[in-house]
Design goal:
8 helices; globular
Length: about 190
């Protein structure tokens, strides 16, 4: 269940047009799904804008879901938190992780338990990196941003390996690596 409320700064006196141009209202999101209950966060940036200068994802969350990522299992119980458009063409499977739903048809994921054991999960994003990215895309900023962006940058090594070892546009070469890059918002179809 998603609950949103607007928090608008109180400023006196101010012209309404000036307020709209200078201040974007903060949106408070309350999350209640299978992995989080009564979690609240603020969306303080416009959707899809004002990213850290080093963070330039090639795919939006909606595009990733439509291509097929995480075996379709990732976002099946938290649709209320994100725009309906994201799910119109999403390849999802609520019963299980189904690698056939992935764009490259291979499993390129580790179980969540592995991520938890290695300490890669930030407590506010119990589903991991993609949940962080979806919330970042929607305008949330948090203390985990820098770490997640560094992890995203670290995935570039896979692009280098694909470029060194595959003929251009050979999507059958290094399919698991290509799928993993899709999971991290890199469009590996173009390498």
């Amino acid at each position: 269940m998603l609950t949103e409320s607007l928090v608008v700064p109180r400023l006196f006196p101010a012209h309404p047009r000036l307020l709209r141009e200078v201040f974007m209202p903060t949106v408070i999101v309350q999350v209640n799904d299978l992995m989080q209950t009564n979690y609240n966060y603020e969306r303080i940036e416009p959707v899809g804008k004002n990213y850290h200068p080093d963070f330039r994802p090639e795919l939006k969350p909606e595009e990733m879901l439509a291509l097929g990522v995480f075996g379709g299992k990732y976002m099946t119980d938290c649709k209320d938190e994100f725009p309906d458009e994201w799910f119109k063409n999403a390849k999802l499977c609520s019963e299980r992780h189904d690698p056939d739903l992935n764009f490259f048809g291979v499993n390129a994921s580790q179980p969540l338990s592995v991520w938890q054991k290695k300490g890669w999960i930030y407590e506010e994003d119990p589903r991991g990196w993609f949940q962080w990215y979806c919330r970042y895309y929607m305008g949330r900023r948090c203390r985990d941003d820098e770490r997640q962006i560094k992890r995203w940058i670290g995935m570039r090594r896979h692009i280098t390996q694909i470029k060194r070892n595959c003929f251009e546009a050979d999507l059958n070469c290094r399919r698991k690596q290509r799928q993993a890059l899709l999971h991290w918002a890199y469009d590996s179809r173009k390498y």
